[in-house]
Amino acid sequence: MGRQRQRARSRADVEEDVRGGRARLVPDPERPRAWTLTVDGAPQSHVDLDDPTHLDFAYQRRLGHLVDAVAAPGAPLRVLHLGGGALTLARYVAATRPRSAQQVVEVDTALTAFVRRTLPWEAGRGVRVRGADARAGLARVADAWADLVVADVFSGARTPAHLGTVEFLTDVRRVLRPGGVYAANLTDGPPLTHLRAQVATALAVFDAACVTAEPALWRGRRFGNAVLCAADGPLPVAELTRRAAADPHPGRLAHGRELADFTGGARPVTDAAATASPPPPPDAFD
To answer: Mean pLDDT across the stretch 179-185?
Structure first.
C-alpha cells in the first residue's frame, strides 16, 4: 500500500480547458490507476482503470445498485446515459453486464476527447458516445429502446432547467421499454424545494418513484446528491433499501406514500416554468 501511495503522489494532475470550464484529473492516492475528474473544481467522476466496478462516489454507487437490481446478474441491458463525464457508470455496466448496448450523450465534446485520451475505455464493449445536448440526443433515440435511462447532467455544477420537466420525462418514458427504469442524479439543499418539485414531476409522468439520499440531506441539514428512480412498473425498492443502508455512506430510501407526502404539494415542472437546480454553497466541495 505504501508503494501504491508513493506512485500516486508521483502522478501529476492533468488539466485542459473544455466547454464546461477547466477539466482536471486528480490522481487517487489509494489506487495506482484511478483518477477523479473535476470541472471548475466541482467533482464529476471517479474512474479506476484497473477496476471499473469500483464506484467511489456515493451517488455513483447508488446508481450501480440500480444497475445490479434491474435484471438478473450478468444479463445485458440497453442503457442510455444522458451526460457522460468520465463514463464511470458506462464502464461499470460494460464490466458487470457484458454484451450490453450503451449510448452516451455528452454535449461537451472537448471533455469527451480529453477523457478518451487520458482515461481510454476498452473498444468493442458496446459503448457509443455522441456529442449532443442531452434532450436533443434523447429525441433521436428509438421508441422502447432502453432498459435504463440515466440522467447525470451538470453545467456549472447545476442541472440545466430543460432536463427536469414533464415534457423531458415524457420523452424519457417513450424511450423506455416496458418495465424500463429512469434514474437521475439530483442535487439540492435546504429547504429541498428543487427535489420536491422533481419528485412531483416524476410522479406526474411515471406510476412509481423512489429517492435515495443521505439522512442529513433528508433532514435538510446539508447540500448533497439524491438519486431519483422512476418507472411504470415495480421498482426494486427492497434491494435498493438494503444496499443503501449497507453503503459506506449509508442512505435512506423513500417511496410510496412517504415520497408523495414529501412533495408537500409541489407542482410538476413544465418547460414554461423550469429553472436550473440550485447552485451548491461555496464550501460544498471543500
So the answer is: 98
pTM over the 0.70 mark: yes
Residue 280 pLDDT exceeds 60 = yes
Instruction: Read off the amino acid at residue 10.
Output: S
Evaluated on CA atoms 144, 77, 72, 62, the torsion sign reads negative
What is the percentage of the chain residues whose pLDDT exceeds 90? 92
Q: Is 169 exposed, middle or buried (0-12, 13-18, 19+ CB in 10 A)?
A: buried
State how far Cα 150 lies from the chain centre.
Answer: 6
Which single residue is written with the C-alpha cell 410522479?
A: 203
| Residue that has been written with the C-alpha cell 471543500 in this structure | 286
Residue 2: predicted pLDDT: 47
Task: Return the HEC string of the chain.
Answer: CHHHHHHHHHCCCEEEEECCEEEEEEECCCCCCEEEEEECCEEEEEEECCCCCCCCCHHHHHHHHHHHHCCCCCCCCEEEEECCCCCHHHHHHHHHCCCCEEEEECCCHHHHHHHHHHCCCCCCCCEEEECCCHHHHHHCCCCCCEEEEEECCCECCECCHHHCCHHHHHHHHHHEEEEEEEEEEEEECCCCHHHHHHHHHHHHHCCEEEEEECHHHHCCCCCEEEEEEEECCCCCHHHHHHHHHCCCCCCEEEEHHHHHHHCCCCCCCCHHHCCCCCCCCCCCCC
